UniProtKB/TrEMBL annotation:
Coiled coil: none annotated. The chain crosses the membrane at residues 103-123, 129-152, 214-235, 247-267, 287-306, 312-332. Keywords: Membrane, Transmembrane, Transmembrane helix. This is Tricarballylate utilization 4Fe-4S protein TcuB. InterPro entries: Citrate_utilization_prot_B, NarG-like_sf. It comes from Roseibium polysiphoniae.
């Protein structure tokens, strides 16, 4: 299966190599035109550079009904998903999530929420605020290993990817260039700067780029909120709950709003997009993960608003269940694509300097 996907992507890429009409569209085409012969590793690298903006498809003169029948966004999306499944550790979990992502996300959230409610019933509580429902010790015992698992899993996966694409020793200049590209999400603006064609067919739009930015910066603000709370708890002897004008709240509230809105926007765009220009086998998993990430943010905001009511224990269990699900599923979901694409951008920056 993997060989067939790579072979089809290579066939289409070789036609693109000869045509060169889309040379300035995104990072894929300059990388494609640098190579005279495309190895399997080259195809995998191109697939992970692709952001599925679909601009090349609508510009192409060789799409169906032409006999070449090019659909490069779909071909690269299938190779990309297959590469994530192949390099993921453990790999069988990734394959299951991509095909049954929505069901797995719902089941894991509800299952972990029930677990937290059961922990509360057996008496694991003590403290102020949320700790009145679940003790700090119980939360640490559960979330500390859950936090390190995805880091270890992704490290193993990315090492395999780096080896397969011929990555060399990483230099700071390449890393800085890659982070700059990722921060601006430059490839989602198209080579012409007018945006991409993800949800509007042949009409250019920056909507997907802005939705991604809302998700990215919302997530970073939420992470900063959690980090600030951790530092305040352990190093400044300032345990939760925190007042409105504290760092955890100043980071967390706008971060939650951005993350919730960005995920809702992204789901709307995916529902309006043409599924034949992406990997149909991964659509459910992608959508399920975006919904999960949005629910993490939304339940956190609801918990902030209703944290002093009788609904707090149930809301907290659902929120903690969604957060735990997010951590444990990260290496096998669309979240992993950010790490792969950043790694692909680092490799691309290396090749540009060579």
């Amino acid at each position: 299966m993997q060989a067939d996907l790579i072979q089809e992507a290579r066939r289409q890429a070789e036609i693109c190599h000869a045509c060169r009409y889309c040379e300035g569209y995104c990072s894929v085409f300059p990388a494609l035109h640098r190579e005279r012969f495309l190895t399997d590793g080259d195809i995998t690298q191109l697939a992970n550079l692709c952001h599925n903006c679909r601009g090349c498809y609508y510009a192409c003169q060789y799409t169906a009904p032409h006999e070449f029948d090019l659909n490069l966004p779909k071909a690269l999306a299938e190779v990309r998903r297959n590469s994530w499944e192949s390099y993921a550790w453990p790999a069988p979990v990734a394959r299951k999530f991509h095909t049954h992502g929505g069901a797995i996300a719902i089941a894991s959230v509800l299952g972990f929420a029930a677990m937290f409610l059961a922990i509360r019933l057996i008496g694991s509580a003590g403290g102020d605020g949320f700790y009145a429902a679940f003790s700090h010790g119980a939360m640490v015992a559960i979330f500390l290993p859950a936090f390190f698992f995805p880091l270890a899993s992704l490290a193993i996966s990315l090492k395999k990817y780096w080896s397969s694409v011929g990555g060399t020793r990483i230099d700071l200049k390449s890393v800085a260039r890659a982070f700059g590209m990722a921060a601006e999400m430059r490839d989602l603006s198209g080579g012409h700067g007018d945006g991409c064609n993800f949800e509007e067919e042949d009409r250019f739009s920056h909507a997907r780029r802005h939705a991604h930015q809302a998700i990215l910066y919302g997530f970073l603000l939420c992470f900063a909120s959690t980090s600030a709370g951790t530092l305040m708890h352990y190093f400044l002897d300032m345990p939760a709950p925190y007042p409105l004008w504290s760092l955890p709240k100043l980071f967390g509230i706008p971060g939650g709003v951005l993350l919730t809105g960005g995920c809702a926007w992204m789901m709307s765009l995916k529902l309006r997009s043409d599924r034949t220009l992406g990997d149909g086998n991964a659509w459910g998993g992608d959508f399920g993960f975006i919904a999960l990430l949005g629910f993490v943010a939304l339940s956190g905001l609801a918990l902030y608003v209703l944290g002093s009511t009788a609904a707090m224990p149930l809301l907290l269990a659902l929120h903690l269940g969604s957060v735990l699900s997010f951590f444990l599923l990260t290496p096998f979901t669309k979240m992993a694509h950010g790490f792969y694409r950043l790694t692909a951008l680092i490799r691309d920056a290396q090749q540009k300097q060579a």
